Amino acid sequence: MDIPMKTTLSILFAAALSLSSMPAHAVKWDLSTMTCKQFLESGEDNIAVVLTWMDGWYKGDEDNAIIDTEVFIENAKKFGAYCGKNPTVSVVTAADEILGK
């Protein structure tokens, strides 16, 4: 099942802006095995956590304490578009394609 681009972008945009409360229970994710489809269907809180992690991971040591919301949202849109077109690709592979490390 392909998720429509408009829906994907709406979910990612809302998640990127909300960054709301963390789940009450501890969860471990192996992002190398999580598919784009699983990511897109994981809910706003989970999407926000993964997007935030990717933002920090791919920045590395540059801009240590800076979150540029404009860049963050643009990258989230690109990531959502890529995942919407490639639902079986792992989240890590998608991130490498979009954010390149």
From TrEMBL:
Keyword terms of this UniProt record: Chaperone, Periplasm, Signal
Bilayer-crossing regions: none
Species assigned in the record: Bradyrhizobium niftali
Protein name: Acid stress chaperone HdeB
Signal peptide segment: 1-26
InterPro entries in alphabetical order: HdeA/HdeB_sf, HNS-dep_expression_A/B
UniProt key word Signal: yes
Coiled coil: none
Keyword Chaperone in annotation: yes
